[in-house]
Design a protein that fits this description.
Its main location: membrane. This protein is mainly α and 764 residues long. It is 71% helix and 1% strand. It has 35 helices and 2 strands.
Length: 764
């Protein structure tokens, strides 16, 4: 059964990156089913044979789903919390499965090869996409390689993880011929893909991690490492320069010849270093260096010196800088601690820490940031991720969960370090170390941890170097549990098995609900759509988009005068359900208000808008919708002769506008605000127009004058005409004349605008 499990997991490992890196939850349910099914089969087999002790040493990974299970009780995004629980239950089950399968020695030997083959195909798949031989959606983002992950930074990080893994593996002693080819063949492709990803974060991290890998090797292997690196880096630069050239009648695929040539050269270098002992022949005293304590630091010190010189060259745009491709030069020039994206990530982290203070112990549940970050943000940026995987943990599972997660991974590194110091499988230990270090270090500045594929890679890497006999129960745990240690382990395993079954059933229900939802989107018939969506929400009541679509369907049915009162009641119930799902999600509350407004419940809609604005001070759309609705209600009250209601709604509109102004001024007081306004927080023209109407109904001529005086946008000249008309209606003719004089419109245009506003508003 070991081989069966290994083959299935290997296929999943190789294939799943092409499901958009398992980033989207709808892409991973099938993967969960495979992993959960395999785990249940394994547990049944172990129970029948009384062999559960064989997987107990790794039982501490149950901590992962346990932390997310606890956070379910404070979930701000129920759907995200469940999906995170599924993911980490599947991750833990994956660890159990691969750990048990890898007890077979030959399987353990095959694991690096499977890992390498996965990297080779990801890189060459991207190369094929570049030449137009394959198609994959969003494989290029702003002309940057993003590959199967559809995100350049994560793609660049993964390429370096594979690159460093391959480099270190090539320093292994007594490599077989096929292993030399396996690890040397993709090096140039890895480096080309990395450069073409234009990931500034990885450009900074790569030299540091590369030097860490160098420091861990013996002098002889350091020279191999340097040789492979020098040849492949220079080769990759030649290839990327060639990529920038236009195709010609003789070269339809610029750079392809260089890529193939340098790939063959790298393989030849591998055989020369391994079979002809070139390094030993060139440096006769290499073995003596190996014996010297200081010998291990000679090459790193020299490389650091060269790197410093290179840094000076790049900073001053010297000889080396001028040899780089133009796109790469531009990307290097943009590397700066004060860079907008770097500074924005700092704001993300500050806001995440502020958020965590309200639930420091167990967090807010999986994917909480996307639902509630607008309640805490300092500037109007748009980001559904913190761009820091560790801060995501703090927000999702609290400080307790964060510390437990970190403790588990530190334990993995502790076991690896012990093996490294004992000189056991040194090359593989170092290769795994630098590859995982690449992933974790870059995850400090990006959201790599949101990709399910990344976690499969991490656990696959750790399993390569952690054997059954390496895991020792800590002494403090032995003292706490005493003779019950194994019993506690078995009970934990049984509890986890129950959790796997629960997750299997619920994730299956969610998958079926998603299928019904997709069918409903394709349906043109309201009755059929209602039936499909009713099935979807019956299977999964946590997904707000199902409820919104169902409510929209009932509203359309109501508009056809079919069961009007009953449908109105159902819509109100759906609205209540949506609000109760994510009560701290401002955008969801706003959409719930729009739903109520569509069925004529305007007062209730205003309450939802007000609550949404109390949470989110930077949503232009909510301000605009609130002001439009209140002015409309004020005009209706005026037409009905209800003066008190007119004043009430006009005051609401004016108050909302003034709140918008205050928040705009507060944001603009920050020097760098315009660099972090991806939500496009501003005061729209139509909102200013409605504010003028509200001030008119409140007879506030000074506010009318102040509003138009502050207008600087040439496209808003119409407001001068409207303000003049309103002041004339209030009897302030002199003020109106002054405003007309400030208006640069042609007299004919002014008269046309007056006619337009007279037709639009009955107050004239």
């Amino acid at each position: 059964m070991n081989w069966f499990i290994f083959i299935v997991l290997s296929l999943l490992f190789i294939v799943t990156p092409y499901e958009r890196g398992l980033y989207f939850n709808t892409d991973v349910y099938t993967v969960y089913f495979f992993i959960f099914s395999l785990f249940i089969m394994l547990v049944v087999r172990l129970l029948i044979r009384s062999e559960t002790n064989s997987i107990l040493p790794i039982a501490f990974v149950i901590i992962f789903p346990f932390c997310f299970f606890l956070s379910l009780f404070n979930a701000q995004n129920p759907q995200g919390a469940w999906d995170s629980l599924f993911q980490w239950t599947a991750n833990a089950a994956f660890v159990f499965l691969i750990f048990w399968a890898a007890k077979e020695r030959k399987i353990k030997q095959w694991m690096p090869h499977v890992f390498q083959l996965t990297g080779i195909w990801i890189a060459w798949h991207m190369i094929f996409l570049h030449f137009g031989w394959l198609f994959y959606p969003n494989a290029f983002i702003a002309d940057r390689f993003s590959g199967v992950f559809q995100y350049p930074n994560t793609f660049g990080m993964i390429m370096i993880a594979f690159y460093l893994f391959s480099l270190v593996m090539l320093t292994n002693e007594n490599l077989k011929g096929y292993e030399i080819a396996l690890y040397s063949f993709p090096l140039v492709a890895f480096m080309v893909c990395f450069i073409e990803s234009y990931s500034r974060g990885m450009y900074l991290l790569f030299p540091v991690i590369w030097i860490v890998g160098l420091l861990l090797l013996t002098p002889k292997n350091q020279l191999k490492y340097i040789c492979y690196s020098a040849v492949t880096m220079v080769s990759a630069l030649f290839v990327t320069r060639a990529f920038e050239r236009d195709s010609t009648p003789f070269h339809d695929y610029p750079g392809l010849t260089y890529l193939l040539l340098f790939t063959v050269l790298t393989i030849a270098l591998g055989f020369a270093l391994e079979r002809l002992n070139v390094i030993e022949r060139c440096i006769k005293n290499i073995e003596r260096w190996n014996e010297k304590r200081w010998g291990q630091f000679v090459a790193p010190m020299a490389i650091v010196a060269i790197c410093l010189l290179g840094l000076l060259d790049l900073t001053n745009e010297g000889l080396v800088y001028k040899q780089l491709p133009e796109n790469l030069q531009e990307r290097i020039n943009s590397i700066n601690p004060e860079n907008n994206t770097a500074r924005e990530r700092y704001y993300f982290m500050q806001d995440a820490l502020a958020m965590s203070k309200e639930s420091p112990l167990i967090g807010f549940g999986g994917e909480a940031w996307a639902s509630i970050y607008k309640n805490y943000q300092q500037l109007p940026y748009q980001s559904n991720k913190i761009h820091n995987g560790f801060f995501e943990w703090i927000v999702d599972i609290g400080w307790i969960g964060f510390l437990l997660f970190v403790a588990v991974f530190l334990y993995f590194y502790y076991v690896m370090t012990k093996n490294y110091l004992k000189k056991k499988e040194t090359a593989l230990q170092i290769a795994v170390f630098v590859a995982t270090l690449t992933i974790f270090s870059h995850s400090f500045i990006d959201f790599n941890m949101s990709y399910g594929t990344i976690w499969l890679m991490v656990f696959w890497l750790f399993t390569m170097v952690i054997h059954h006999e390496h895991i020792v129960v800590p002494k403090f745990w032995e003292k706490v549990s005493g003779a019950n240690s194994h019993k506690l382990g078995r009970n934990s395993l049984y509890a986890f098995s129950i959790l796997v079954i629960v997750c299997f059933v619920i994730s299956y229900r969610f998958s079926m609900a998603d299928q019904y939802y997709n069918q409903a989107q394709d349906s043109k018939y309201l009755a059929e759509r209602e039936e499909l969506l009713s099935k979807a929400v019956a299977l999964n009541q946590n997904e707000s988009k199902y409820w919104f679509f169902l409510a929209d369907t009932y509203i359309r049915i109501k508009q056809q005068n079919i069961n009007v009162n009953e449908n109105r009641r159902i819509i109100k119930e759906i609205n209540h359900k949506i609000v109760s799902l994510e009560p701290s999600n401002s955008y969801l509350l706003y959409r719930a208000g729009v739903m109520l407004e569509r069925i004529g419940m305007k007062e209730e809609a205003l309450e939802k808008y007000a609550t949404a604005l109390s949470m989110d001070q930077f949503d232009t759309e909510i301000y605009q919708h609130t002001i439009n609705l209140t002015v409309s209600m004020a005009l209706d009250a005026s037409a009905a002769g209800d003066q008190s209601r007119m004043v009430h709604y006009a005051r609401l509109a004016a108050h909302t506008y003034e709140m918008l102004q205050e928040n705009i001024e507060a944001v603009q007081s920050v020097d760098v605000w315009h660099y972090h306004n991806s939500r496009d927080f501003h005061i729209p023209f139509v909102t200013k127009e409605k504010a003028l109407i509200s001030y008119f109904m409140l007879e506030k001529e000074d506010e009318i004058g102040s509003l138009v005086t502050a207008v600087t946008n040439e496209g808003e000249s119409d407001l001068f005409v409207l303000a003049g008309m309103l002041l004339q209606e209030l009897g302030h003719w002199k003020k109106a004349e002054l405003i007309y004089q400030n208006n640069e419109l042609h007299p004919n245009e002014t008269e046309d605008l007056k006619k337009k506003y007279q037709e639009k508003y009955e107050i004239f």
